[in-house]
Design a protein that fits this description.
The protein has 22 helices and 43 strands. By secondary structure, the chain is of the alpha/beta class. The protein has 5 domains: about 1-30 and about 700-795, Immunoglobulin-like (Sandwich), CATH 2.60.40.1180; about 55-135 and about 390-530, no CATH class; about 150-295 and about 295-365, no CATH class; about 540-695, Rossmann fold (3-Layer(aba) Sandwich); about 805-945, Sandwich (Jelly Rolls). α16 (about 575-580) crosses α20. The radius of gyration is 30 Å and the shape is globular. The protein starts with a helix and ends with a strand.
């Protein structure tokens, strides 16, 4: 393989006559001003030496706010040396089981606390590190200082089955005691108030609100007279201050704020900013942004003027329908599934679903106006950016990210990442369901900074390897993320008993054996972010989710952990597109309504699409139907999956609006047979399913992959004149070869290596846009098509296993345990430490030594370690062969192999998990590992010369 000089000449002449890549109409081209982008060399220089804005930040948990100047500075130095570019200051409750070793907590916003914050900001400036800070402490934010009217509210209900004739008597207090939602984070001082009593027939074949019994609310004892038949007593209860801040630190624990109250939100935020500005001055001089964590509000759904706002916005009274539109809730505000209340006929259930949609839309509007807008205004008045994880039941999953300066999503490290990838669902996925919503919303609003709480980890805290971290982070980038904020760095002084103060997350800590290698990944990640933050992801397919149908049937979900995926495959379609060489964005009905149309294209801001895919959408606004018809009439491709919309949402005028929707879509199907059609839902294989869709509707990939696989995904970016392809293998054991044809004809492929910061021409056989790409386990490639023609050619040597020499042993091993022990011993052959009772709980560095007697040193070019559970570093005859922290542990010998005796040392650095599990009396260790299995460990082999 190679690029002869004559090909350079041929390509040079070709560039002058070939068509531009992915020819688009002038509207799209005019929205991309090349002058706004860096030159190829400038972008590469940024890639080679990333700025701190591209480097990973960390969520810096200030555990219990037990702060000292000395420790703050020590930890900033550790992070700086590890390649970390910034911190999110995050006060949080002191972790369970940890030893405070004599330190005491400072109260949030106290003079002492603000003094420590000032020290932190000054030290960060001296180290050129960037600071964000969370609002309040824990999540959702609140505090002991909130007045009752400022605390979060939940309107819920309870039911009692009654059969008459007869009279039934209940005390007011008994009814209140019966209402106790099984939420996760209860506040002990909850205010309960019965707001309505209603007797309803046990079966409703036609809607009726029931008999109002509110006059009984004035009595301590409630008497209910029931006529013959079966009835349900519904009673509404408003809970105020029902939820406690999750993990709130002193001074910011207590009840959660009511985010539906503009006055309460504004008062809370100004209390924080006034305290800070009085001491440290303008916030924008010290902070990049103010951060709001995910609002896990456990079902909070109320503010006192909501009924009035509902009437004003929706045009009818909510009260008759209120008990029926609500769900009983349990853990984290999720609906309780067991049957309760009256049986509703299908006709009545459809009415309730329509009112439920109106109820939720009203809450979305109030939340946006009273929290998001207030938060944004407050941030901008203080000259900082707003950074919000804008998901959960209060936010629109897509549109909320349009309004936030730095929208943020979340990526998790799980046991299955790197080895499994189910057809649908989340096994094997690191990105959460919200990532594609957030990244799409950001790009629709012209934002290049897509933030992510990354490597969130509650199941592998001490078992997370750099390899798993890499695969998790790569998947995050594939979902559209351009900046990572790690979960998280624990504030923990060195005198705290091992392992220190651990609140959550991967054990990013100098006490972790692999911490010395952390910067390898940090630099890799920063180089990718530096490119992505200066580029635009390409997509010409828009996906419309059936959010309205989901909300009407099942209620809003607790993203990013929905109880219901509707349809089951809804969050996996974008993967199939990227696995097949396409790109897509999610859109909403409002995006479609606000878009403009140019022939076959829909344009919104900087984004332009030729195709719309509707995922089992049954219910849609008449206005949305009209704009889809307009798009189809101009030649846009409209693909309906499984269902064609027939209904409108909302209650008022629904019969008339249903007719409009059904009529419009029937006309679309009748009049646009060449570019609109219905296709069935996917079966077991989404990759082939989308291949069939692309073939039927003549969708052209920008990257044709002849042998796609579910573990191989890509994303395509454009920056100025550069075409940038990020391609990733998510499997930590398997290798793949892809035969790829790029729809680019006037540029050469370059390989930008995010590990080394170097670039070189990628070799090809016949055409520069047709490449054979081999991926080692967990490997990624950044392929950049550029008009630049001169440069070194990447040397790719095919590694053959046909001729090899096995290295059997014996092996001298040196065990340097994190507990300070050092053991030397000899083993006859390699084995998994997990199979050995004496060694399975080891953590630290294992050095394997052996002498290789070689007759023909020229015969071999690689040393292959086989299976390694840890990070490997190899030297031979005193020459360092390299470090492998993920994927294949195969090392080029670099002429280090000599005839006769070769002194070989293999150093393997492990994770802490097995050791932590063995510490049965260590509360911190057992908190995180008690339910985990022991893991494989060490150099397992076989070790071979190739």
């Amino acid at each position: 393989m190679g690029i002869p000089r004559r090909q350079f000449i041929k390509l040079s002449s070709l560039a002058a006559v070939s068509a531009p890549f992915l020819v688009q109409d002038c509207t799209m081209d005019e929205s991309r001003e090349t002058s706004a982008y860096l030159s190829s060399d400038d972008l590469f220089n940024l890639f080679k030496d990333p700025p701190n804005t591209a480097r990973v930040f960390v969520r810096w948990w200030w555990n219990g706010d037990m702060l000292t100047e000395k420790e703050i500075i020590r930890e900033l130095d550790i992070m700086k040396d590890a390649g970390i570019g910034g911190v999110e200051i995050n006060p949080i409750r002191f972790p369970d089981g940890a030893d405070p070793v004599g330190y005491t907590s400072l109260e949030w916003l106290s003079d002492e606390w603000i003094h420590m914050l000032d020290i932190t900001l000054q030290a960060a400036r001296e180290r050129d590190m960037i600071c964000d800070i969370i609002v309040g402490s824990g999540w959702p934010f609140g505090g002991e200082f909130l007045e009752k009217e400022e605390q979060t509210q939940l309107m819920t209900f309870e039911t009692i089955n009654l059969e008459g004739p007869g009279s039934f008597e209940y005390s007011n207090q008994l009814l209140l005691d019966k209402v106790d939602p099984g939420i996760h984070s209860k506040y002990e001082k909850v205010y309960k108030e019965i707001t309505e009593l209603r007797l309803v027939p046990a079966t409703l074949n036609e809607f009726e609100p029931g008999t109002n019994l509110d006059a009984q609310l004035l009595n301590d004892e409630i008497l209910i007279n029931v006529q013959e038949g079966k009835f349900i007593l519904y009673y509404l209860v408003k809970l105020t201050g029902f939820q406690a801040v999750i993990n709130g630190a002193p001074g910011a624990a207590g009840p959660v704020l009511n985010h539906y109250s503009k006055e309460a939100v504004k008062k809370y935020l100004e209390r924080m900013s006034v305290k800070l500005t009085n001491s440290i001055g303008v916030l924008g001089n010290s902070f990049r942004g103010m951060f709001c964590d995910s609002l896990e509000m456990e079902g909070a759904n109320w503010v006192d003027d909501l009924p009035e706002e509902f009437l004003k916005r929706r045009g009818y009274d909510l009260k008759p329908y209120l008990p029926f539109v609500l769900f009983k809730i349990g853990h984290m505000g999720n609906p309780i599934e067991e049957p309760y209340g009256s049986f509703l006929s299908p006709e009545v259930e459809k009415i309730i679903q329509r009112v439920r949609y109106d109820f939720y839309i009203t809450r979305l509007e109030l939340f946006k106006e009273r929290f998001i807008d207030t938060f944004n205004d407050w941030c901008h008045n203080n000259q900082v950016k707003s950074r919000i994880q804008a998901y959960g039941r209060g936010y629109h999953p897509l549109e909320a990210s349009l309004y936030i300066d730095i929208p943020e999503c979340e990526t998790w490290l799980r046991e299955t990442v790197g080895t499994e990838f189910d057809n649908t669902g989340w096994r094997g996925r690191a990105y959460s369901v919200i990532n594609k919503f957030v990244s799409s919303g950001a790009r629709l609003a012209s934002k290049k900074l897509v933030s992510c709480e990354e490597i969130t980890n509650t199941s592998m805290v001490f078992n997370a390897s750099l390899e798993r971290i890499k695969v998790t982070g790569d998947q995050s980038n594939l979902s559209g993320v351009t900046h990572s904020i790690l979960h998280g760095f624990n504030y923990s002084p060195p005198e705290a008993p091992f392992p220190g103060w651990v609140q959550y997350g991967t054990f990013y800590n100098e006490r972790n054996p692999w911490w010395a290698y952390f910067r390898l990944w940090a630099d890799y990640k920063a180089r990718l972010s530096a490119v992505f933050q200066q580029s635009d992801p390409y997509a010409d397919i828009a996906i419309l989710h059936p959010l309205t149908d989901l909300w009407m049937k099942f209620g809003p979900q607790r993203d990013p952990f929905p109880v219901v995926n509707y349809p089951e495959y809804q969050h996996n379609v974008w993967e199939a597109m990227q696995q097949n060489g396409f790109g897509c964005d999610y859109v909403s009905e409002q995006i479609l309504i606000d878009a403009t149309f140019h022939k076959d294209r829909m344009v919104y801001g900087p984004r332009s699409y030729t195709t719309l895919i509707l995922l089992e959408v049954e219910t849609i606004l008449p206005e949305t139907a009209e704009v889809i018809a307009k798009w189809a009439g101009g030649g846009g491709k409209i693909i309906f999956i499984e269902k064609i919309p027939q209904y409108s949402p909302g209650y008022l005028n629904h019969r008339k609006n249903d007719g409009k929707v059904a009529s419009v879509f029937q006309k679309i199907m009748d009049s646009n047979t060449k570019n609109a059609g219905l296709y069935s839902a996917p079966g077991d294989n989404l990759i082939t399913w989308f291949q069939d869709i692309a073939k039927k509707f003549n969708l052209k990939p920008y990257m044709k992959i002849t042998n796609p696989d579910k573990f191989i995904q890509q994303s395509y970016y454009r920056s100025g004149d550069l075409d940038i392809f990020f391609i990733s293998n998510s499997h930590i054991r398997k290798s793949f070869r892809l035969e790829v044809s790029f729809d680019i004809y006037d540029k050469l492929p370059w390989h930008w290596d995010p590990e080394t910061g170097e670039r070189s021409l990628y070799p090809f056989e016949t055409s520069p846009n047709e490449l054979s790409l081999f991926f080692e386990p967990a490997e990624t490639k950044l392929i950049v098509f550029d008009r630049e023609k001169d440069g070194e050619i990447l040397k790719i040597t095919e590694k053959s296993d046909e001729s090899f020499k096995s290295i059997e042993g014996p092996w001298e091993i040196i065990l340097e345990h994190v507990n300070g022990e050092r053991i030397e011993k000899t083993i006859e052959k390699l084995f998994d430490f997990n199979t050995n009772e004496e060694l399975r709980s080891f953590a630290g560095v294992i050095t394997y030594k052996t002498n290789l007697n070689i007759n023909n040193s020229q015969k071999f070019t690689y040393l292959d370690l086989g299976r390694v559970e840890g990070i490997s570093e190899v030297s031979m005859n005193g020459n360092i062969l390299g470090v492998k922290w993920y994927g294949s542990h195969r090392f080029p010998l670099k002429n280090s192999l000599i005839k006769d005796i070769n002194v070989t040392e293999i150093k393997v650095t492990t994770v802490l998990g097995n050791y932590m599990k063995s510490l049965e009396d260590n509360k911190v260790a057992q908190r995180w590992t008690a339910r985990q299995e022991y893991q494989s460990l060490g150099l397992i082999g076989p070790v071979r010369l190739l």
